[in-house]
Design brief:
Chain lengths: ~120, ~110
Amino acid sequence: NAGVMQNPRHLVRRRGQEARLRCSPMKGHSHVYWYRQLPEEGLKFMVYLQKENIIDESGMPKERFSAEFPKEGPSILRIQQVVRGDSAAYFCASSRLAEKYNEQFFGPGTRLTVL
Amino acid sequence: DQQVKQNSPSLSVQEGRISILNCDYTNSMFDYFLWYKKYPAEGPTFLISISSIKDKNEDGRFTVFLNKSAKHLSLHIVPSQPGDSAVYFCAASVYGNKLVFGAGTILRVKS
């Protein structure tokens, strides 16, 4: 029973390039959440998605960041024209459908470094 | 706007003794609280949770206590083991949706 999968684990980009981070939720989970952890800080919520729908994107920066969770395939967090301040660990979590109290299970994270 | 606060950046405990990690919150709408453990370069691992209708939940060596009137929760680990050394995050949510995390507490268990 595989857990939440994220790839790549490490990603290096130069300023101005695009970063694509992928997340495959646990089997049977249809809710996906993305969080970002800056150095020396806790995790900060970015976006919550269900299949083909963005439910809550209140934590997403208004520009350059987008997320999707297509009917088939992994969830993608896309960062366009990366800047040094985007360097962080990005974690994906998933939970099961339709439960009031949902534990969220996290993947190992993608560590993005912007040069 | 820190809705969830872990005021102790670090805690050091002797092996076999009790570890108590504390967390305070400000948003009275939170109805679900969770504790996660995190090792360096790994994702957070779910430990234990509690809903706002309870004041205690126990799972093996881990017990979480919730004091709604004080907006305070704590995680007790008894007995503490060296393998418990990690960063512990408190998190809260409204209706099981997005989690709001504290800044974490580094626990060191000395053998």
